[in-house]
Each structure stands twice: as structure tokens, then as C-alpha cells.
Amino acid sequence: MQDLKVPGHPGxxxxxxxxxELAAMAGRLRSLEAxxxxxxxxAETLRKERDRERLRLERLRDSESYRLGYGLVSLVKDPVHTxxxxxxxxxxxxxxxxxxxxxxxxxxxxxxxxxxxxxxxxALGLDLAxxxxxxLTLRQRMLVSPDHKPVVLTDCSSFALLRDLGVLLxxxxxxxxxxxxxxxxxxxxxxxxxxxxxxxxxxxxxxxVVDRDQPLSLAxxxx
Length: 223
Hints:
With 223 residues, the chain is an alpha/beta fold. The chain is 56% helix and 11% strand. It has six helices and five strands; from the N terminus they run E-H-H-E-H-E-E-H-H-E-H. A five-stranded parallel beta sheet has the order 1-5-2-3-4, sandwiched between helices. Strand 2, helix 3 and strand 3 (149-154) form a beta-alpha-beta unit. Helix 1 runs antiparallel to helix 2 and helix 1 packs parallel to helix 5. The longest helix has 64 residues, at 14-77. The chain is extended and about 75 Å long. Mean pLDDT is 76; it is low at 5-10.
């Protein structure tokens, strides 16, 4: 289960914080369910691909055996022209076998570079200035220790003005705006769905809820 950290600042009301945590957990659960379905589909695709390759290999083996058998018959009828062709066929088959007692050479593929894990910072209820200050603090923290990829979720409609600060920003409408335009659908469901999508897209390893009245300082982020 994903590590969900909520700073112990008193500014955020307990009921609202609990709703955010529930939405985050629900989003994580949806993400895991979607990933499980995707893995099951991938497994079925791989099984079908394996069966096709196995059938193809059997056909190739049968075809080569037929050519060698045909070559033996041709050798009897026309040894002068058949010997070179039959020799090449035998050599092709022998290349697939290693001499007894000689260890097989194992070639290892180069290891793929490890991508840093993604951390999702849920910073809802902050105005543009507060979001900017937090993003700048987060950028300083990454300069000190770039051990993860930060993703900030904000409901500030002016977030596009901060895209040049070097931190990935994601957006979700704030509660008042959403309820004004779409009162037929609960805002908590929208938040949960948005979190689920972010968990899936970024494969987030940790979620940190930012207190809107007392955002995390550089010291807090380095802990």
C-alpha cells in the first residue's frame, strides 16, 4: 500500500483532511484494480504469442527435416550437385548445437537505468502565491537531494503560470467551481478519479497532503 503522509499541522480541518485521505485511498485502489486488469490482459496476450511462436518453431523444424530428407534422396539420384547443398543444410543445423563439454556463453543485456520514484504532493486550497512558494521550496529540495520525481496536484486555476518553475503540475477543479458547473456529480468522486489517473500515469510511490494554512518548509521536505 502506498505511503500516505499527512503533516501534523493544525491548520487543515480534520473532516476535510479525512475526505482527502479517503479520496486518495479510493484513487489508489482504482489504480491497482486497473493495473491488475491490464496485467491479466498482457498475460493472455503473451500466452497467445507464445503458442504462435511454438507453432511456428515446429513448422520450421518440420520444414528443415523435410529439406534434409529430400536432400538424401537427391544425393542418391544426383550426388555431384546435391553434396554442396546438403552440406550447407547440415552445417546450419549444427550451428544450433554447442560441442559437449563447452559451457554456453551467456550474454546479459545491459541493465536499464533506474527511474526515480514519483511522489504526489496534494496541494489543494492554496492560492497562486502559496502554490508558487511551495513549488519553489520543492525545487530547492530537489536541488539538495534529487531522489524522486515530484508531481504537484493543485486546484488553483492559474497554475499554468507556474509551469516554467521546473516542477510537474497537475490540475483538478476546486470544490466550489465544480459544484457550480456540475452539481450532479460529487466533487469527491472527481478527486478520487483524478488521483487514480495520476497514480496510474506516474506510478507514484508516495502521496503527501500539503496543509494549505501551513505548507511544508524545506526542512520538512528533507526529512
